[in-house]
Specification:
Elements: E1 5-10, H1 13-22, E2 26-29, H2 42-51, E3 56-59, H3 71-87, E4 91-94, H4 105-115, E5 119-122, H5 132-142, E6 146-149, H6 160-168, E7 175-179, H7 184-194, E8 198-201, E9 204-208, E10 229-233, H8 235-254
Organism: Blautia ammoniilytica
Subcellular location: Cytoplasm
Main location: cytoplasm
């Protein structure tokens, strides 16, 4: 099982390049991170694939919101997995729930079958499951490689107790990847406590748009968003996080 993974979630080629510069282990590629992430376009994947040398895992999510999908949405997910597999993606990041807060095992099996030999991550749909330990055991039986989770809280700091328990139940069959509010500061605090060997962050920073002519009274989307500010991954944040992971690993092996 892989260990000491720093996965960086990106939604642009610029962010992918910054993540690679900072020392990321792999990328989770998505679109529209500002709404939690949706499936990226195939053109974005191909652009990122050509620009970086890191493994790329693809978020498969047809819309924002919960993870209880219609037949049409599920059909899109199947087709997207097949498409990204053909394009050369190394992994997919998926999650489908039943209305009662359990994993939709029938649909999850179909998605995993479609993924073939790609790595499979169960994303933070896990954090909306009614029973995290039951869901973890089901994920093991499904052959899922990784669970991305904040410990069923808004962020990892709030969910650190559950995260620690989940890591203790890995049994070498699955990897718990802590995500949600991870930055160099929180990583330094949580790393020795949780004991996870995989971490997920976006490392985002605000960049100003090069636009000089601006009509701020017109909004192209949510009025609460400043459309002249761009969120992109900061290579510096990734580099700091990577340094913390490296130092922790060295200290662990020395001791």
């Amino acid at each position: 099982m892989e260990s000491d993974i720093l996965e960086v979630c990106v939604d642009s080629t610029e962010s992918a390049l910054a993540a690679q510069e900072g020392g990321a282990s792999r990328l989770e590629l998505c679109g529209n991170l500002v709404i939690g992430g949706t499936s990226p376009s195939p053109c974005l994947f191909q652009e990122v694939q050509a620009a970086v040398e890191l493994p790329v895992h693809i978020l498969i999510r047809p819309r924002y919101g919960d993870f209880c999908y219609t037949e049409h949405e599920f059909h899109i997910m199947l087709k997207e997995i097949e498409m990204f597999q053909d394009l050369g993606a190394q992994g997919v990041v998926i999650g489908v729930l039943c209305p009662d807060g359990t994993l939709d095992l029938t649909r999850m099996k179909q998605l995993i079958q479609a993924a073939g030999d790609m790595c499979v991550t169960l994303h933070r749909a896990f954090d909306l499951c009614a029973d995290p330990f039951a869901a973890m055991e089901q994920a093991k039986e499904l052959g899922i490689h990784t669970i991305l989770t904040s410990g069923q809280q808004n962020n990892c700091c709030q969910g650190k107790e559950l995260l620690r328990q989940l890591v203790s139940h890995e049994e070498g069959r699955i990897s718990i990847m802590a995500g949600g509010g991870i930055n160099p500061q929180t990583l330094k605090e949580l790393l020795p406590y949780i004991g996870a060997h995989a971490w997920h962050m976006s490392g985002k920073a605000l960049f100003q748009s090069p636009m000089t002519y601006r009509k701020k009274e017109i909004s192209m989307g949510a009025a609460s968003l400043d459309e002249f500010q761009i969120l992109r991954t900061s290579a510096s944040q990734i580099r700091q996080a990577k340094k913390i992971l490296t130092h922790h690993k060295e200290a662990y092996h020395v001791s």
